[in-house]
Amino acid sequence: MENIDLINSFSEFKDNKLIDRVTLMAILEDVFRNALKKRFGQDDNFDIIINPDKGDLEIWRNRIVVADGEVEDDNQEISLTEARKIEPDFEVGEDVSEEVKLIDLGRRAILALRQNLISKIHEHDNTNIYKQFKDLEGEIYTAEVHHIRHRAAILLDDEGNELVMPKDRQIPSDFFRKGDNVRGVIESVELKGNKPTIIMSRTAPEFLEKLFEQEIPEVFDGLITIKKVVRVPGEKAKVAVDSYDDRIDPVGACVGMKGSRIHGIVRELGNENIDVINYTNNIQLLITRALSPAKVMSIKMDEENKRAQVTLKPEEVSKAIGRGGHNIRLAGQLTGYEIDVYRDGEEEDVELREFSDEIESWIIDELSRIGLDTAKSVLEKDVDDLVKITDLEEETIIEVIRILKEEFE
């Protein structure tokens, strides 16, 4: 195989979108020098001339002419007789440059050289892809569904790069078909081996934040600042917004007339209920706003332990807790405070955690998951209702109720 034939066989790399001419030449030279080292032991006396645009390659070996019988290193030296076969007027001590044909390296070396080049090209591509997407972490990206696996959707972008959206990064109501265009945020990029793994997410709070930037001009322009986003993907979200311009109503600007501005975001997120809240440094006021749509009567703060006791009228309690306990849980995440709800006029309630000696912690966690954090909140529920909305057995619930009732007798 002639040199030019081998270079022509690499033509698919010349137009590679991620490799410029200088980089390609450097990779080619590195690969050929490795092949020369394996064949001749060293490569410092070789000149490699590459023009990948034309497919040209020349390799020249430089040696010093020595007297016949005095060659000690046939890679660095050449006898006078052999030198004069190249040019008849060579003399001892002169430099001889002789072209090396790839066929002289042997067929195995040529096959290994090609494989090495392909590997180097892919390694370079993967490094560039990693850098490109690492810079896009936290940004919205659109890709097309290529195929659906049991635990993930595999997507391809316009350049053929593969992205993975695991099932737990998809909104529960998401249903994708091959060919669908999907938006999400680039959540993380990792190099596993030499291949980058790009994870896309639609459940991350950053996705909702970036949708606000895309859909609401004042957020994009920086006139409105998003202070914090908390979500139960596909169910409910709370977004705290602020504006440094008193003339701008940040909540009104984000929601729009009759919800016109936020409607597209809600639809994108599978009808996720989004509460937009006016941010304030006054933590009591922020907690009051975060518990919307419930109306708070009073708040007792424990700043040292980051807890707030909130008193509401009885008819407002269910609103504060919300379906599945989402509202009170998100309010706590948004404000950074553990929020305990009390009905107006009721006697002192007791935290479920106070019963940890008698009730196992996993049972308390299960009741807390649906917003039942106190003894009275559990006692107000029927046994049948608790069986339906928790993963607890009826016998377990009856025993819990017995323990709690003893506290108030």
TrEMBL record:
PROSITE patterns reported in the protein's UniProt record: KH_TYPE_1
The source's domain of life comes to Bacteria
Q: What is this protein called?
A: Transcription termination/antitermination protein NusA
Record carries keyword Repeat: no
Originating gene: nusA
Q: Which residues form a coiled coil?
A: none
Q: Which Gene3D superfamilies match?
A: 3.30.300.20, Nucleic acid-binding proteins (2.40.50.140), NusA, N-terminal domain (3.30.1480.10)
Q: Where is the K Homology domain?
A: 233-295, 304-409
